[in-house]
Amino acid sequence: MISRRTFVTKKDDILSFDAGNDTDKLIELHNRVIMNTYARVPGIVLSHGKNAAVFDLKGTEYLDMGAGIAVNALGHNDAGLVKTIAEQSAKLIHTSNLYYNAPAIRLAQQLIGNSALDKVFFANTGTEANEGALKFARKHGLQSSPDKYEIVAFTHGFSGRSMGALSVTHKSKYREIYGPLVPGIKFATYNDIESMRAAIGPNTCGVIVEPVQGEGGLEAATPEFMQALAEQCKKNNALLIVDEVQCGLGRTGELWAHERLGVKPDIMTLAKPLAGGMAIGAILVRDHVAGCINPGDHGTTFGGSPLVTQAGLYVFQKIVQPAFLEEVRAKGRHLKARLQAIADSDAGRSIKEIRTVGGLFVGIEFDHAVKDLVNFAVAAPNHVFFISAGDNTLRLCPPLTISTKDLDRACDVIEAYLKKYNQQSKKQ
């Protein structure tokens, strides 16, 4: 008889590797056991965080101007969120969606009560939320015609990395190695009304659009474009899907990024900041969409768990407060003014554009790549984490609770780098 473990290899060299809290050894172990899908910041293993700061195992403090890619809206280690998670963990963590749970119902109540949508489906990520939204659009369209399955997306848009979400993500470097992707996808030019109208027709079941493009350099949709888009969707009985995974939930200083645009979406997707760092996604839909979805049409094992939705309820009830949002807007004005002052100075002559619709979501486009700026910022004595949005754009999306003092610190580092860059350019 063949042993059950005949084909299972126990790797003693891996299991016996004791990295402890040694940074170099942990990174060595990481490289041996974790897939190489991210170009991580070298030489740093993070240990803990507080407010807008994170600390590595050596105790070095870093200002986090990326907030876990626009996730940690309340900063790191918010005391109330930690307490909420601990208390809910002691009660009930997971049940599956075969049963009702109170935290999910209460979070859904708040999301629906504070939006123009009617029903919620909880997922685990933004990618999952967008994937589900595409499925709902297809189901809705196929009720009208078997040919009504086309989906329109936009240039420079990013919706995720699973096959459906990837199919409506524009950048070729993400797409080309995984083809063929989902058929029936068209791309129109973002903010181009004529291009959009040409792409949407009788066979279009849905259109997915970001009010502010996160990965796309923080380009913002204009009200004229979005209103024309909503009109074209209505004309063709196509669902308007607004992707607020990154730009929603207070990031722009408004609860929803589409509020300034004068449109009412059929579907809205959320994720990143909703549970303050815990994995969550949400699809909000209007009744005419919810009405065509039946039990078994879509599902999730972990989505809407008591633990993550209780965390989400705590975070949402903080963000939704008018005083909180006004503070985000005020900090956004302060940040924009500081950056504009740099751009107007001799140091900022390589800044091409500062993009923001308000709040703490800012893109700074340069006439050169930002990789060296990011590396300069993280190194001593600066110790600031920045992230990019494409090769030439710096993306600022710090915790919404960040202080103006920390915003000034980040701006000082940008200015210091630009002065150094200009000096080096003169020598060349």
TrEMBL record:
<dbReference type="InterPro" id="IPR050103">
    <property type="entry name" value="Class-III_PLP-dep_AT"/>
</dbReference>
<dbReference type="GO" id="GO:0005759">
    <property type="term" value="C:mitochondrial matrix"/>
</dbReference>
<comment type="similarity">
    <text>Belongs to the class-III pyridoxal-phosphate-dependent aminotransferase family.</text>
</comment>
<dbReference type="Pfam" id="PF00202">
    <property type="entry name" value="Aminotran_3"/>
</dbReference>
<dbReference type="InterPro" id="IPR005814">
    <property type="entry name" value="Aminotrans_3"/>
</dbReference>
<dbReference type="GO" id="GO:0030170">
    <property type="term" value="F:pyridoxal phosphate binding"/>
</dbReference>
<comment type="pathway">
    <text>Amino-acid biosynthesis; L-arginine biosynthesis; N(2)-acetyl-L-ornithine from L-glutamate: step 4/4.</text>
</comment>
<dbReference type="InterPro" id="IPR004636">
    <property type="entry name" value="AcOrn/SuccOrn_fam"/>
</dbReference>
<keyword id="KW-0808">Transferase</keyword>
<keyword id="KW-0028">Amino-acid biosynthesis</keyword>
<dbReference type="InterPro" id="IPR015422">
    <property type="entry name" value="PyrdxlP-dep_Trfase_small"/>
</dbReference>
<keyword id="KW-0032">Aminotransferase</keyword>
<dbReference type="InterPro" id="IPR015424">
    <property type="entry name" value="PyrdxlP-dep_Trfase"/>
</dbReference>
<protein>
    <recommendedName>
        <fullName>acetylornithine transaminase</fullName>
        <ecNumber>2.6.1.11</ecNumber>
    </recommendedName>
</protein>
<dbReference type="GO" id="GO:0042802">
    <property type="term" value="F:identical protein binding"/>
</dbReference>
<dbReference type="GO" id="GO:0003992">
    <property type="term" value="F:N2-acetyl-L-ornithine:2-oxoglutarate 5-aminotransferase activity"/>
</dbReference>
<keyword id="KW-0663">Pyridoxal phosphate</keyword>
<dbReference type="InterPro" id="IPR015421">
    <property type="entry name" value="PyrdxlP-dep_Trfase_major"/>
</dbReference>
<dbReference type="InterPro" id="IPR049704">
    <property type="entry name" value="Aminotrans_3_PPA_site"/>
</dbReference>
<dbReference type="GO" id="GO:0006526">
    <property type="term" value="P:L-arginine biosynthetic process"/>
</dbReference>
